[in-house]
Amino acid sequence: MNTKDQVIAIIAEQAMLEPSDVKMEHTLEDLGIDSLGLVESIFAIEETFDISVPFNANDPQASAFDISSVAAIVAAVTQLKSEQHG
Amino acid sequence: MHRVVITGAGSINPLGANVPQTLEAMREGRCGIGPLDIRDADRLSIQIGGQIKGYDEAAHFNRQQIALYDRFTQFTLLAAREAIGQSGLTFSGDLADYSGVVLGTSGGGLNTQDENYRAVYEEGKNRVHPFIVPKLMNNAAASHVSMEWKLRGPSFTVATACASSNHAMGQAFSMIRSGMAKVMVTGGSEAMLCFGGIKAWEGLRVMSKDGCRPFSATRNGMVQGEGAGVFVFEEYEHAKARGAEILCEVAGFAMSSDASDIVMPSKQGAARAISGAMKDAKIDPRDVGYINAHGTGTAANDKTECAAVADVFGAHADRLMISSTKSMHGHLIGGTGAVELLACIMAVRDGVIAPTIGYEEPDPECALDVVPNEARDATVDVVLSNAFAFGGLNAVIALKRHQ
C-alpha cells in the first residue's frame, strides 16, 4: 500500500467505514471523526509510518499538521515522512 | 442537619511544604512549575511539571515507613499532620469511633507501580518487594491516616480522576451533616510525575510544553503537578464547644454527571453542579464573590467552564472573580481540589483572592474577571470550588466565611 492508501485505511477504520467510502475531499467532520478519534488516528499514523506528528489538541488549527481534509492529511504525512526519514 | 466547619488545613505541593508557604506563594503569584527532574525525562515530549522540589522522604519517615508509603501516601501523611495538628484534636473513645478519613486520588501509588513494572519488565527481575500491593493500593493513604491518628469510623478512598478530592470532601461533608460522623479528615493526594504517568498523559495531546495559562488566549494545555491537601471537617457545635479556631464553614456541595463524553466536558453538566452546590448551601448566587475554577488551561475546559458560569450567574458572572491556581501549582489530578480549597479558605478568611498567573491575552470565550497575574484584596462571604473530571463527573463545594 502507498502512503495515501495507508492513511485512508487508518481513517476508514476510525470512521468505521469501508476505505472506498473515504474520499480525498472529505473533512474529518464529514466522516464523523471527533477530537478523540482524531488523536487516535494521529497515534495510528505515527505508529504506521514511524514518524512524530506535531499536534496539540488544544489548538488543532495552530499545529503544523494540516487536518483540514483527507487530502491535506495525506500530504502532511508524505511531507513528514520525507523530513523525518530523508 | 448539622453544620460543618473546617478546623485544620495541611498541604505539601509545588508552592510550599505547608499551608502558610502555599498561601504566601499564591498571594505573590509565584509559579511552582518547572523542568521535570525524573528518570528518563529526556524520552518525554512533555518535560515540565509542578514537582515538589528538594523533597527528601528520609527527612520525614523511617525505613519501615518508606517501605510501605508510596509518595502519594507520604504527601498525605505530611498534610494530615499539619491539618490535625492545627485542629488540636486527639481521637479516642466515642470521638474516634465517629471520626474517619475520606480521601481522593486518581493514580494512587503510581510511582510504586512504575518502579516495579520497570523491575520486572525492563530489568527482567523475577521478584519484587513483599509490600508492593499495600504500598500501591489507592486506599493506602486513607488507611495510614486512620492508623496513625486512630480514626476508627468510616474511611475510604474516592477515585473520580480530576474531581476525586472534591468528591471526597463532599462525602466527608455529607457524613458530618447527616450525623454519621463528628470529624472527618478529608482532601486528596496525587503523585503521578513518573515516566509512565507523564507518558500516558502525553498521548492525549492536551499537555502544554511551556506552561499553564488558564483563560489566556495563548493557553495551550494543562501541566501536571503533585502534592496533597488535607483538611479537618468538624461538626460545628463540637468545634464551638471545645473553642476550636474555625477557618470557615462548608456550606454546600453538589455533584453531577455529564453522561455524554469520556473526555469532552459539558457546559450543562458543569452548570448543574455549580447551581446545585448553591442550592444545597441555600445561598443566593449574587452572594458568591469568588470561584476557584477548575481552569486546566486546555481549550475545552476553560471555554466550557466560563460558559457554564455565565449561564448560571447571568449578569452576576461579570461581578464575581474566578481564578485558576493551577497556573501556579499545575493540575494535581486527584489531589487538585484539595490544594485549591486552600485558595478558597484564603478568600473567605483572609480576604485575598489568588490570581491566575501566566495570563497574557484575553480570550473572548473566557470573558470573566479571572484575577489576572496579581492577587487581589477583596471581602467575599461565599466562594465555590469547581472540579470537572474526565468521564464527565463534576463536584462543586461551597464555602462560607465564618463570622
UniProtKB/TrEMBL annotation, chain A:
InterPro entries for the chain: ACP-like_sf (IPR036736), PP-bd_ACP (IPR009081), Ppantetheine_attach_site (IPR006162)
Domain Carrier positions: 1-81
Organism from which the protein derives: Yoonia litorea
Keyword annotations of the record: Phosphopantetheine, Phosphoprotein
Gene3D superfamilies xrefs: ACP-like
Protein name: Acyl carrier protein
UniProtKB/TrEMBL annotation, chain B:
Domain of life according to the entry: Bacteria
GO molecular function, one term: 3-oxoacyl-[acyl-carrier-protein] synthase activity
Isomerase in keyword set: no
InterPro entries noted in UniProt: Beta-ketoacyl_synthase, Ketoacyl_synth_AS, Ketoacyl_synth_C, Ketoacyl_synth_N, PKS_Beta-ketoAc_synthase_dom, Thiolase-like
A GO cellular component annotation in the UniProt record: plasma membrane
Localization per record: Cell inner membrane
Purpose of the protein: Proposed to synthesize NOD factor fatty acyl chain. Involved in the synthesis of a highly unsaturated fatty acid moiety, which forms part of a lipo-oligosaccharide that is responsible for host specificity.
PANTHER family tied to this protein: 3-OXOACYL-[ACYL-CARRIER-PROTEIN] SYNTHASE, POLYKETIDE SYNTHASE-RELATED
Family to which this protein belongs: Belongs to the thiolase-like superfamily. Beta-ketoacyl-ACP synthases family.
UniProt name for this protein: Nodulation protein E
